[in-house]
């Protein structure tokens, strides 16, 4: 795990189960996910194929599908799972504290 700073991204209740939201911090954009099991994850916000924002995508279990060309990534690992994406997403550690979601960047 990196030694980056923890940044408050949102409230736990801001994300429904099996959903994703956009989080901007400085000049960077992230995607914050909540799986159907209620686990939280974070990744870079743009698809590695054509920089389309993943917050407009579809969360299915532990997979995010990009809305542009339907490429898929594994949410916990960022691994590219379906063409046209072939470059993995960078993921970030997440922690919950006092009903807040924090990511380490």
Automatic annotation (TrEMBL):
Listed Gene3D superfamilies: Rieske [2Fe-2S] iron-sulphur domain
PROSITE patterns the UniProt entry points to: RIESKE
Cofactor entry: [2Fe-2S] cluster
Keyword Ligase annotated: no
Keywords: 2Fe-2S, Iron, Iron-sulfur, Metal-binding
Family note: Belongs to the bacterial ring-hydroxylating dioxygenase ferredoxin component family.
The protein, known as: MocE family 2Fe-2S type ferredoxin
């Amino acid at each position: 795990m990196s030694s980056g700073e923890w940044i408050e991204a949102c409230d736990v209740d801001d994300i429904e189960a099996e959903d994703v939201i956009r989080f901007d911090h400085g000049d960077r954009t992230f995607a914050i996910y909540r799986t159907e099991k209620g686990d939280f994850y974070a990744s870079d916000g743009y698809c590695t194929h054509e920089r389309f924002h993943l917050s407009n995508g579809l969360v299915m279990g532990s997979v995010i599908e990009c809305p542009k060309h339907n490429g898929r990534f594994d949410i916990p690992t960022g691994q590219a799972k379906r063409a046209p994406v072939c470059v993995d997403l960078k993921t970030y550690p997440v922690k919950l504290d006092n009903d807040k979601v924090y990511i380490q960047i």
